[in-house]
Design goal:
Elements lengths: L3 H6 L1 H9 L7 H38 L4 H33 L19 E6 L12 H7 L3 E2 H7 L6 E2 L1 H21 L3 E2 L5 E3 H6 L11 E2 L6 E3 L4 H5 L6 E2 L6 E10 L18 E11 L4 H19 L3 E5 L11 E9 L4 E10 L3 H6 L2 E4 L4 E4 L1 E9 H11 L7 E2 L13 E2 L1
Parallel strand pairs: 4-9, 8-14
Antiparallel strand pairs: 1-11, 2-3, 5-7, 6-7, 9-10, 10-16, 11-12, 12-13, 13-16, 14-15, 17-18
């Protein structure tokens, strides 16, 4: 949630910054609600002051033995008016909060302008694209040929956008998870953490999946206030909800492997073939909780950590910076890592690394005590995939295939594969 002071004091400038990301702020609606809020707060305070004054006067009159019945009757009326105004004020504040919950984060001033994915800015590339002497197959054909990817069986068990993985591919899928966790914890200094795969409504509000992306969530039929996690970002970041950290407790950095569950409500017709966009997939998520002045240096560190996975796997990729119009709802600035897929002859997203600044922290009331002031202040939160496991598996299959459909296992995974170097 953006700082309400921007809506109260700099609403036109705020509207202009939000327009860069294609969001049209209803300035008139907010101004009207703010006008009502101010008026109701003044009226409520005046009524409360009058009630306090009369209460004191009643005490004085009683001490003198004088009649207080008329004043007591007036006090009853005042009490009713105070209650009515409080209810009105609470309703206006609720409307303001609902309004604010649907406003995306302000883009950082360094974010490039643009309105769509094609306007993102390429920052760098790594790795050489392989020259094939044959037409490379996509991961679906490769996996189905060996009967190690089974989309038909998954559809029978669950439905569309699921997969059954068998044999050596299932082992490599598991190996990737272990490799990523070991790399991030042993070399990059992350603390590994295990979290629930089900979260409550407050947690999804805290990280901004609700109310904006309600259709993308899987709610439990037994309890509509509980949801399957769309990403480990939700439970891990919510570790900071309603917490005040001491200065020496920050920064904190977590690596967490979880399954992720998404309805993909907004992606109808996109990537219906294969494992690129599924209802259930695995990720190793990286989350940082930091002091505000650290967050942009940490964003670069986070992105570099995710890149290292691709470099060790020897997968060609590029890094692009999100333009304002392609930023995630909560992000102030972010980068995508895009891995090369030979079958598609294009780079596809495999990680998104973002700085949310204090957007999530304000919702969660996640704070740290600044020793210079002695007062609690909002922290900054960051997250990124390090990496999306299924898409990494897809990239390995396609980039390291031969003309017979065999897949060479990246050397860095051999120790996790019991020495297996080629998947038949």
């Amino acid at each position: 949630m953006i700082d309400p002071k921007y809506l109260r004091n700099d609403i036109q400038e705020t509207a202009e910054r939000l327009s860069l990301r294609g969001y049209s702020l209803d300035v008139a609606a907010i101004a009207l609600l703010e006008e009502k809020r101010k008026a109701l707060q003044i009226e409520s305070q005046e009524l409360q002051n009058l009630r306090n004054k009369n209460s004191k006067l009643i005490g004085q009159l009683k001490a003198k033995g004088e009649d207080t019945r008329a004043l007591m009757a007036e006090m009853e009326g005042l009490g009713k008016k105070v209650e009515d105004k409080t209810r009105e004020l609470d309703e206006v504040l609720r409307q303001l909060q609902d309004f604010q919950y649907n406003i995306p984060n302000l883009p950082h001033l360094t974010v490039p302008q643009g309105t769509r994915e094609e306007d993102n800015v390429e920052l760098r590339k790594w790795g050489e694209l392989r020259h094939f002497t044959f037409t490379p197959k996509d991961h679906v054909d490769l996996g189905e040929k060996s009967n190690q990817l089974d989309f038909a069986m998954a559809a029978k068990i669950a439905g569309a956008r699921f997969v059954v993985i068998r044999g050596a591919l299932a082992r490599m899928h598991r190996a990737l998870i272990q490799f990523m966790l070991d790399l991030h914890t042993q070399e990059h200094g992350y603390n590994e953490i295990y979290v629930p795969y089900i979260v409550n409504t407050a947690s999804l509000y805290g990280t901004s999946q609700l109310p904006k992306f309600a259709e993308d969530q899987f709610a439990l039929k037994t309890d509509p206030e509980l949801f399957l996690i769309p990403t480990a970002e939700v439970p891990v970041t919510n570790l900071a909800r309603d917490v005040i950290f001491e200065a020496d407790q920050l920064p904190q950095k977590f690596a967490c492997h979880t399954p992720c569950f998404r309805s993909e409500a907004g992606s109808y017709g996109k990537d219906t073939r294969g494992m690129i966009r599924q209802h259930q997939f695995e990720k190793v998520e990286l989350v940082h909780l930091v002091k505000p002045h650290q967050s942009y240096a940490i964003l670069e560190e986070l992105t570099t950590n995710a890149e290292k996975v691709l470099q060790l796997l020897k997968l060609p990729y590029r890094v692009v910076e999100h333009c304002a119009g392609d930023l995630g709802f909560s992000a102030a600035k972010g980068y995508d890592l895009e891995v090369w897929l030979p079958s598609q002859k294009r780079y596809r997203e495999i990680s998104s690394c973002s700085n949310m600044e204090d957007f999530q922290a304000r919702r969660m009331q996640a704070r740290w005590r600044n020793p210079e002031t002695g007062k609690p202040e909002l922290i900054h939160t960051l997250n990124g995939s390090g990496l999306a496991v299924g898409r990494t598996l897809v990239a390995i299959m396609e980039n390291f295939q031969d003309e017979n459909g065999k897949i060479t296992v990246p050397e860095v995974l051999w120790g996790y594969m019991n020495g297996l170097k080629v998947i038949e």
